[in-house]
């Protein structure tokens, strides 16, 4: 009976450790993923041409990408540095650009546009899922420059911050106000 108890305890211990490793992914804290994307320019429509007509010359050049708002990251659960820019592209679409991002890697990290104020310290760790937020997708890498397209139907007027959000543990790694 005692051998069976020890065997059952050993199996249970291995199962708990394996589940913990899968859930927490502690190795991600030591693995960096660097992404260096160029700023997108937008997809301006090409000039229309008719087969028999001479090539048309556009009368105006497309507008250059414009920074609408920007901010600097404040660290929360993990040290996070870099800047965030909300950029209007030449075609009128918007993108969130993370520049010189440096944060810890982690499980299930997302980039969110939110209406929450950025607070320093523990007071800011859990506020971003309390109100309105739009997930722009999974964080592509924990270091570097990267772009996240803002869906065309998103009303940007009330969204005032960007957070690197750990969806697994409902906590902000870092956030930046957009001003």
Automatic annotation (TrEMBL):
InterPro entries: DM13_domain
Coiled coil: none
Region ranges (Disordered): 40-77
Pfam families: DM13
Ranges where the DM13 domain occurs: 71-179
Record's compositionally biased regions (Low complexity): 43-74
PROSITE patterns: DM13 (PS51549)
Protein name in the entry: DM13 domain-containing protein
Protein's organism: Streptomyces lateritius
